[in-house]
């Protein structure tokens, strides 16, 4: 008996595997560019809010003098303007938020910790509270909230992520022990990574299988991002050309690497640090070059 061709085998695999999942890739982490003090929670105001823009040991800070056995919550520090450009029609898989934070003024029995950590969708606080019970130490540390498969209790479209109103809101709780003190919550830097599957990496639906069975499952992507001196292209490509453009659409670098070469490396040594658009097979990704 003649053995089935590869194309027919792939047709059967795609047609019957209804549980196929998309390959999610990360975009980011991106830092914020807008900030505000949101008074819908707490009483203690955040000051020097612009210091969350860079990881430079300068802090947005909220300070309160408290008596013994007292508690006070800060307002939200609400940030956005992340600058994502997730392709239209993408499936959002999850959101990871990283916060570099610490506290000051701690004494015996005193603690600073999360009061409320929310995602911001179209300018509105929404979803589940991701606050943890972990203390904010006296030395800067990065706390991570959410993850590659965490939707924060709501649904997302690429337009929601790309909106200037997409962001994060964080409030802290300050508690004293048997000594009254001036306690401070401090945030140095906030960044967000969004995990998504673009339309070109979505699994085939059963009725599409007869049309696309002979085409390879491509899952185009790249890593790492942020990148250093090089990136690696994943998946199967149709064309050899890989293009890097600046955010105004000007070509910064163009290379030609045969589609049959697996996991090709693209050097970024001659690309200045910054945000770029990476084009592969008419799919556009956001590339962050950081050294």
Topology:
Layout: H1 6-16, E1 25-31, E2 34-38, E3 60-66, E4 71-73, E5 76-80, E6 91-104, E7 111-121, E8 124-126, E9 141-146, H2 158-162, E10 167-175, E11 181-197, H3 209-212, E12 221-223, E13 230-234, E14 241-245, E15 251-256, E16 265-267, E17 274-280, E18 283-289
Antiparallel strand pairs: 1-11, 2-5, 3-11, 4-10, 5-10, 6-9, 6-11, 7-8, 7-10, 12-13, 13-16, 14-15, 14-17, 17-18
Average pLDDT works out at 84
Give the distance, in angstroms, between the N- and C-terminal Cα atoms.
59 Å
Q: What would you call the shape?
A: elongated
Number of helices: 3
CATH architecture of the largest domain: Sandwich
Q: Write the H/E string, N to C.
A: HEEEEEEEEEHEEHEEEEEEE
Report the β-strand fraction as a percent range.
35-45%
Q: How many separate structural domains?
A: 2
Number of strands: 18
Gyration radius over CA: 23 Å
Helicity level, as a percent range?
A: under 10%
CATH topology of the largest domain: Jelly Rolls
Give the CATH class of the largest domain.
Answer: Mainly Beta
Low-confidence segments, given as residue ranges, are 1-22, 201-216
Report on the biggest sheet: 6 strands, antiparallel
Structural class, from secondary structure content? mainly beta
């Amino acid at each position: 008996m003649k053995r089935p061709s590869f194309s027919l085998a792939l047709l059967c695999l795609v047609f019957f595997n209804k549980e196929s999942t998309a390959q999610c890739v990360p975009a980011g982490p991106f830092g914020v560019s807008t900030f505000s003090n949101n008074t819908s929670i707490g009483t203690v105001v955040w000051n020097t809010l612009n210091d969350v823009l860079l990881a430079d040991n300068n802090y947005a800070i909220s300070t309160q003098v408290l008596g013994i056995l007292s508690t006070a919550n800060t307002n939200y520090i609400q940030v956005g303007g992340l600058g994502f450009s997730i392709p239209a029609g993408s499936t959002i898989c999850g959101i990871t938020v990283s916060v570099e934070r610490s506290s000051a003024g701690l004494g015996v029995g005193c603690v600073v910790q999360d009061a409320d950590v929310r995602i911001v969708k179209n300018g509105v606080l929404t979803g589940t509270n991701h606050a943890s019970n972990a203390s904010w130490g006296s030395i800067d540390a990065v706390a991570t909230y959410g993850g590659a498969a965490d939707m924060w209790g709501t649904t997302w479209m690429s337009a929601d992520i790309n909106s200037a109103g997409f962001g994060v809101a964080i409030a802290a709780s300050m508690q004293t022990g048997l000594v009254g003190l001036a306690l401070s919550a401090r945030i140095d830097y906030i960044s967000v990574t969004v995990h998504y599957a673009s339309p070109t990496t979505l699994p085939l639906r059963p009725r599409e299988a007869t049309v696309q069975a002979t085409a390879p499952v491509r899952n185009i992507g790249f890593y790492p991002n942020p990148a250093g001196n090089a990136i690696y292209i994943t998946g199967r490509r149709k064309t050899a050309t890989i293009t890097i453009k600046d955010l105004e659409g000007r070509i910064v670098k163009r290379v030609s690497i045969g589609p049959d070469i697996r996991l090709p490396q693209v050097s970024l040594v001659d690309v200045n640090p910054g945000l770029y658009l990476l084009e592969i097979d008419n799919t556009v990704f956001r590339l962050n070059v950081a050294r």
